[in-house]
Amino acid sequence: MTNDDLHDELFMKKIAVLTSGGDSPGMNAAIRAVVRTAVYHDCEAVGVFQGFQGLIAGDFKRLHVRSVAKILGRGGTILKSARCDEFREEQGRRKAHQQLVEQGVDALVVIGGNGTFTGAMHFSKETGFPVIGIPGTIDNDLSGSDFTIGFDSATNTVVEAVDKIRDTADSHNRLFFVEVMGRDSGFIALHAGIATGAVAVMTKESEITIEHLVDILKLGQASNKTSSIVIVAEGHPEGGAFEIAKKVYSLDSAYETRVTVLGHLQRGGDPTCADRVLASRLGVSAVEGLLSGKKNVMAGVINDQLVFFPFEEVVHNKTASLEDEVRIAKILSI
Ligand code: F6P
């Protein structure tokens, strides 16, 4: 694409970018890609600080090519992030629109997850303002992209932690319950469970009851397992790792049990190569999408192809299937 092809008709000159919701490793790489692609195509880039909160407050700053130097491999987000209640209301969204118009911004790139795109969808419907989303969340719970920025890094962090837990679990012949993030989705739990050889992965997708878990553990013991790791996805209907450990103990007290909740350390750290590349591809794609007239869509990668899906589909239609992972985790844990 040449610059002329892209924005001759649209006269897009100023593109703003923000990060919103839970941060994820690789968000900085996406910001860098958005800023550099905008400048490459002769547009001005503007950073909005503190997510939608900063959009409402007019917390904007021009970003140059060098403003985003040396952030490609850094975790967190230089633009900060927030969850903003005011943007859930139409009045808040109107204020945000007014700020964008006053500051002469022509289009907006939002990097975030489900909540971010729900807000962006309402905003663009009400105001007609061009918005494109980039999936940035460790949860990997958005349809419209095979992977979201941060998922690979977070899962690698979990794998590193569980490998360490395995060492001590094995030394003491212990049973460990490790709770991981993922809100409504079992992606982190199942991928980390497969990668660390967990005896069971408790997610809503795997549908393992407490009684069934006790049977799995008994089988493991009978077949000479010296340590066992159960990965628990947060928000599991049976409770978190502590509750599930207690329930197992009440049915079978044969194990020396410990619990680890990994928590927010999963959201920090340097992005992996996969996340840096994904973020870079999606940043370029989002800006070029805007310049070629796309709006109110999320940029994603499906089967290694850059694609765009309307916010409505991304937000309302979680089609991602974990059937394969559930089966693989089960077969390999015997
Ligand atoms: O959406 C990302 C995520 O890390 C979820 O996995 C988790 O449930 C949630 O955010 C935690 O949110 P907060 O940082 O606001 O406690």
Describe it.
- This protein is α/β, with parallel strands linked by helices.
- It has two domains: 194 residues, Rossmann fold (3-Layer(aba) Sandwich), CATH 3.40.50; 116 residues, Rossmann fold, CATH 3.40.50.460.
- 43% of the residues lie in helices and 17% in strands.
- Strands 3-2-1-4-5-10-11 form a seven-stranded mixed beta sheet, sandwiched between helices.
- β10 and β11 form a beta hairpin.
- The longest helix has 21 residues.
- The site of 6-O-phosphono-beta-D-fructofuranose has 10 residues, from loops.
Highest-level CATH class of the largest domain: Alpha Beta
What kind of sheet is the major sheet? 7 strands, mixed
CATH topology label of the largest domain: Rossmann fold
Small-molecule components bound: 6-O-phosphono-beta-D-fructofuranose
| Number of domain modules | 2
Unreliable runs, pLDDT <50, ≥5 residues?
Answer: none
Widest sheet, order of strands: 3-2-1-4-5-10-11
Shape: elongated
Mean pLDDT: 94
| Total strands | 11
- Compressed to H and E, one letter per element, the order equals HEHEHEHEHEHEHEHEHEHEEHH
Q: Span between N and C termini?
A: 52 Å
Helix content: 40-55%
How much beta, percentage-wise? 15-25%
CATH architectural category of the largest domain: 3-Layer(aba) Sandwich
Rounded to an integer in angstroms, the radius of gyration calculated over CA atoms is: 22 Å
Helix/sheet category: alpha/beta
How many DSSP H or I helices? 12
